[in-house]
Design a protein that fits this description.
- The chain is an alpha/beta fold.
- About 40% of the residues lie in helices and about 15% in strands.
- A hairpin with a 2-residue loop joins strand 6 and strand 7 (about 190-195).
- The radius of gyration is 19 Å and the shape is globular.
- The model has no long low-confidence stretch (mean pLDDT about 95).
- It binds phenylalanine (PHE) and cobalt (II) ion.
- Phenylalanine binds near residues 155, 156, 162 and 256.
Length: about 300
């Protein structure tokens, strides 16, 4: 018998949130979810499905339906895996919280997607500083059914293992790419902007803000530019990058990054809200309400 999984969360200290890492893989303790847990899932699921109508990209909505995710009950990883495996070879594995970078990359490279087994508490409904099951399952899992995106995620994992052996700066460059695509990416479909980033689709406020607010910049996808750009972890993004297709993402990231890391090492990082003369500007943000403290 293995012991019950732990709920590993970041520590709140006088210096702010300090992330705690864990490598343990767990069985989803489905029978241990309380009625409150199922109710939290139901509430967030219904609210996001509604907000994402006409805002999330087509592939996100369609694939979430293919999984049969519904508000009634927290999904069983096993049931989702029965759909996912045959489609793209990915498998969800249960984890207790954030993984160390290299472990995370190795899982992705092997088409294993780590999903936090626990769901946020009621007092964290609108904001939680770290990934929980709602973010991971509702936000990330649907696009793993898309063959091109599924390949992108695995390629990213292999790239992460490689970058880990290059330098700390290479990892920073690669993490920015994940942030501005997988977590906070926008895509243009039929001439309109839509959401595909998981950090956005799992947040009501940012789902509306990223498309409708005049504050943020919306800029055409540019891989090297993104790899130099700082980001925000505690506020809405100041800049969103827009792809035209998942194929574009896959093609742009195909080259060997090692020479690119070397090239970027000589350049200054770009602040999160800065617009450059070389940017393809879809919309220049007004910057209204932007935090003035340092970006990550
Ligand atoms: N091509 C990148 C490399 O050589 C790996 C990568 C693929 C990174 C896809 C991000 C996304 O490191
Ligand atoms: Co995420």
């Amino acid at each position: 018998m293995s012991s019950a999984p732990r709920r590993v969360e970041s520590l709140v200290t006088d210096k702010g949130n300090v992330p705690v890492y864990t490598t343990t893989i767990v069985e989803q303790p489905w029978d241990s979810y309380s009625e409150q847990d199922h109710a939290t899932w139901a509430f967030l699921f219904r609210r996001q499905r509604e907000v994402l109508q006409g805002r999330a990209c087509r592939e996100f909505i369609e694939n979430q339906q293919r999984f049969g995710m519904n508000p009634e009950r927290i999904p069983k990883f096993e049931d989702l895996n029965a759909v996912l495996g045959p489609a793209t070879g990915w498998k969800l594995i249960g984890v207790e919280g954030l993984l160390p970078e290299l472990d995370f990359f190795e899982h992705l490279a092997n088409r294993r997607f780590p999903v936090t087994w626990w769901i946020r508490r009621p007092d964290q409904i609108d904001y939680i500083s770290e990934p929980d099951m709602f973010h991971d399952l509702f936000g990330h899992v649907p696009l793993l059914l898309n063959p091109v995106f599924a390949d992108y995620m695995a390629a990213y994992g292999r790239g992460g293992v490689k970058a880990h052996g290059v330098s700390a700066q290479a990892l920073v460059n690669l993490t920015r790419l994940y942030w501005y695509t997988v977590e906070f990416g926008l895509i243009r479909q039929h001439g309109e902007l839509r959401i595909y980033g998981s950090g956005i689709v799992s947040s009501k406020g940012e789902s509306i803000h990223c498309l409708e607010s005049a504050a943020p910049n919306r800029i055409g996808f540019d891989m090297k530019r993104i790899m130099q750009t700082r980001y925000r972890i505690d506020t809405y993004q100041k800049t969103y990058f827009v792809i035209d297709s998942f194929e574009q993402l896959m093609e742009a990231t195909r080259p060997d990054f090692v020479p690119i890391y070397a090239e970027l090492a000589t350049r200054e990082a770009i602040p999160a809200g800065e617009v450059r003369s070389t940017d393809v500007i879809i919309q220049r943000g007004t910057g209204e309400g932007w935090a003035t403290d340092a970006d990550t």
